[in-house]
Amino acid sequence: MQQDAVIIGGGFAGLSAAYILARARRHVTIIDSGTPRNRFAAHSHGVLALDGKSGLEILADARAQLAAYPTVTFLNGEAHAAQGTIDDFHVDVAGHEPITTRRLLLSGGIEDRLPDIPGLTERWGKTVLHCPYCHGYEIGGGPIGVLSTQPMSAHQAAVVADWGDVTLFTNGMPEPDEETLALLERRKVSLQPGTVDVIEAGTCDRLRVRLKNGRTFDVKALFVAADLHRRGTIAESLGCTLTETPAGMIIATDTVKATSVAGVYAAGDNARAFGNITLVSADGVMAGLGMHQSLMFSGHS
Ligand SMILES: Cc1cc2nc3c(=O)[nH]c(=O)nc-3n(C[C@H](O)[C@H](O)[C@H](O)COP(=O)(O)OP(=O)(O)OC[C@H]3O[C@@H](n4cnc5c(N)ncnc54)[C@H](O)[C@@H]3O)c2cc1C
Question: Among the atoms of ligand 1, which is closest to the Cα of residue 234?
Fold first, then answer.
């Protein structure tokens, strides 16, 4: 049966959009491969009234509540292609018949690619962190590291300094300019040149940052700006316009999260420069409203 909307990616953005459409009694299929970006963290913060709940738990609750709506279908798997035009899109999922739909939402999120330093990946979301607003409070002050991965890392260090005593490990990145050095000095950030060799266990649950020159620094947490990559290439294959931001290439959308391709919407980390659960959920709500309005007024409802 043709769907009103197919949602590729049932994370925070996708499920928020589905919720709006389900409550408008529209037929919506959510395709999800089950690997939300924050799955590495045991707790989420900064989400009103859900402080400390894990992202996976929040999503499981949302899925359970959505499943009570009779027009909602869940499909566990990965959408690997989509084609067609407004009112007649086809989505391919391995092991299933192609799904036909009038509207399409791309909400597959992004992935964080970390520098290739031993000891980093296994600590991601635990003591190797991406955002002080999400996880800085729990560190409880004390020594904190910031690993330089890009010019903006110096600014990240200046911000993280509100949560503890920060050391910026330059790790081979060029020395910041004079203005940035003055900012780091004002923010009491100490600069540590040298290449990081390995991240290992330190004393008292701390991390030990070991430099190639043999020096070591024990910190309570290490912030790292990962390389951000949109997941999949369905947006490109449909012809959606992309736009460059400080956080990488995202899908360009208008205020109701419509892309440049009629009938295709995008919401979540893949369509905004910096996301968190609340912001992408709001984008998903907007996309749900946009798709519903479009189904009513610009299609053949
Ligand atoms: C370690 C870590 C901790 C974080 N902690 C917090 C926090 O405490 N508070 C906070 O507000 N934010 C936090 N964030 C940010 C938050 O996780 C993201 O902003 C949020 O997950 C983005 O939601 P989304 O719906 O865009 O994508 P995601 O949540 O990543 O969901 C995308 C979904 O789409 C699926 N998918 C992708 N491609 C396909 C496809 N082709 N077919 C089918 N399914 C597909 C994926 O499997 C996934 O389930 C954290 C991020 C990280 C990295």
Answer: 41
Closest atom of ligand 1 to 80 CA is: 41
* pLDDT for position 204: 83
pLDDT digits (tens, 9 = 90+) for 153-199: 999 999 999 999 999 999 999 989 999 999 999 999 999 999 999 99
**Taking the chain, what is the end-to-end CA distance rounded to the nearest angstrom?**
15
CATH fold of 115-224 reads FAD/NAD(P)-binding domain (3.50.50)
| Closest residue by CA, ligand 1 atom 13 | 276
User: From the CA of 172, how far away is ligand 1's center (Å)?
Assistant: 30
* Ligand 1 centroid to residue 195 C-alpha, Å: 31
**CATH of the domain spanning 3-111+228-297, picked from 3.50.50.60, 3.40.250.10, 3.30.540.10, 3.30.565.10:** 3.50.50.60
pLDDT band of residue 300 (cuts 50, 70, 90) is low
CA of 249 to the centre of ligand 1 (A): 16
